[in-house]
Amino acid sequence: MANHVYSFFNITFSSEADAIDFSEWIGLLPVNENITWGERIEACCNIMIDNLWEDNEDTRQWWIDNIGAKWMYFDDIDRYDDEVHINMTSAWDFPEGLFFKLSDFLRDRYQGAIMQVTFEDEGYNFIGAGGSNHEFRDVEYHHPDFDEMDEYKDSDGCWTDEYYEEMDNRKQMVLDEVLSVIQQDLSE
């Protein structure tokens, strides 16, 4: 079981105005100069949870049942033109409930928004990706077979840089698979 899972959300909006609107909805804008960057990131996480779940409870069971993780916090959040990037850490699993709830919100409010997510367990027991647009959404996991990965160990039995590159390659392959699902053309 994973202790920490690192997730990287990238939301691309159809316009910079939509990205700004979302940034305001999540509390990233306007900038409050009276709080630290860390307090601002924490506030964004709490604001998003409060906005998505008005009846949320700060209990372990509520988080597991709704978010899909025992707990979660943002590591970073930024807006770049028409994109918003959210990096977060969660316990035990990818916050799949959050992914689907945020996907529903984006579909309802922002025409053309696309969300891409990659995630990894701290020990790479699983990696994965998710994607969402107005038509489709998908989350896929990959569980590496460590018995087949001895070639990525050094003489001390430690993972080499090539191992981490291979995990990144596999994560990208899963993301590419997810994107092919959400970008499918139904007219064929």
Task: Summarize the structure in words.
This protein has one domain (4-8, 10-182). It is built from 5 helices and 6 strands; from the N terminus they run βαααββαβββα. 38% of the residues lie in helices and 25% in strands. The chain is of the alpha+beta class and 188 residues long. The model has no long low-confidence stretch (mean pLDDT 91). The protein has helices at 16-26, 37-52, 60-67, 96-109, 161-182, and strands at 4-12, 72-80, 83-91, 114-121, 127-132, 137-142. A 6-stranded antiparallel β-sheet has the order 2-3-1-4-5-6, sandwiched between helices.
Q: Can you describe this structure in just a few lines?
A:
With 188 residues, the protein is an alpha+beta fold. The chain has helices spanning 16-26, 37-52, 60-67, 96-109, 161-182; strands spanning 4-12, 72-80, 83-91, 114-121, 127-132, 137-142.
